[in-house]
Amino acid sequence: MTKINTRMLSPRFFPQTPELKAKPRKFVKGEYLYQPADRLESVFIISSGMVKIGGYGPEGEEAIYDIAGPEEFCGNLKYLGGGRFHEFARAVTDVETITYDLRAFKRAFRKDESLHDWFVRLMVMRWARSESRLFRIASLKPRKRLAALLEELGATANNVTQLVTQADLANLTGLSRQTISKLLVKMEQG
User: Where in this chain does the record put each Cyclic nucleotide-binding domain (predicted)?
Assistant: First the structure.
């Protein structure tokens, strides 16, 4: 994952006002940062750890569509209108975040061009990562799709299931969980 300098997003960057409501928070592995039913009014900037982001299918099954790491964000930014928010974020590892009040965060980046530029760059990078994954699904053979995702996550066939489930890998590669299982065994064997 590309690293962005987020020193400007530490509580030291912003004036310490009650309005900003910047709070460091910790989440243990497996804990939800938020779920669809939550009334989320926060932006989470990840300081350390990894978070999987997804939604729920028609049968209630989790579908993962991104994994965010240090210096990335998640949260309900409410730019898509007043509809119901369907996303969840769950800690893949122990996670530390700086949590900002959504309204204060938006005001801050409207006033500060460098913060606005940083955030737009971060969104474009996430969008590009999603496009790259879709391209791999459309153009690569299954083994190469999985290998590219493992490289993106900084994982190997031997340790990836310590980070995410085979079902998560299937969601992110457009493969079945069974295919992922077979490919991981083959990749471990060389």
Answer: 24-107
